[in-house]
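From the pipeline queue, job 12 of 40. The input is one protein chain; the requested action is below.

Action: predict structure.
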Amino acid sequence: MKKNILIIILLGFISSVKAQVGIGTGTVTPTATLEIVTKNNTSATKALEVNNSATTPIEMLTLVNNGNLGVTQSTPETSALLELKSSDMALLLTRTTTSAISSPINGMIIYDTSTNCIKAYENNAWSACFRN
């Protein structure tokens, strides 16, 4: 009985503990709940790589040290902040209406569900539908 009570107390204590975790070199005082710091990277080297658990792993996510992000692309283009690669999938834009976005910013792109088309926010206004 005493053993069960002790286990319950320990589980309660463990579940209430919140910590910041630093992973990598030089992460003595992390500034986020999970902070990953890499070491000795150049702008061409990978800072983070996430693979799936297949027998022959596929690189699902690549973050290069200069901030370029590749999704199923192990070497994202240097002039692209984000590169998506797939032979059978596509980018899915946010599906909403222009009126639903309370503070639009120049450069936003949406699929407008009220007009069933793609629109962009430019020069402080929503564009007309992108059409052929």
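Job complete. The chain has one helix and ten strands.
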